[in-house]
Design a protein that fits this description.
Distance between the termini: 26 Å
Helix content: over 70%
Number of strands: 0
Shape: globular
Oligomer: single chain
Radius of gyration: 14 Å
Largest sheet: none
């Protein structure tokens, strides 16, 4: 079941586009891009979430990520 967001699709797409543009500007390969994005997520959790909630949020984030990854052969 899709999750409802308090943010508009337009706002999400705008931020996503800007992040992609930065990675493309620096010609970051996939592994570096994933490292940077992972570090960003970790930093956000560690600096913006109460310590008692960090593990739960990280687990939920990981589960959401896993459920959104497609199993097709597109590359």
């Amino acid at each position: 079941m899709p999750q409802l967001s308090r943010y508009s699709d337009e706002r999400v797409e705008e931020l996503l586009s800007e992040l992609v543009n930065v990675l493309e500007k620096h010609k970051a390969p996939t592994d570096l891009s994933l490292m940077v994005l992972g570090n960003m997520v970790t930093n956000l959790i560690n600096t913006s979430v109460a310590p008692a909630q960090r593990q739960t949020l990280a687990r939920s984030f990981a589960e959401a990520l896993q459920s959104s990854v497609r199993e097709d052969n597109a590359h």
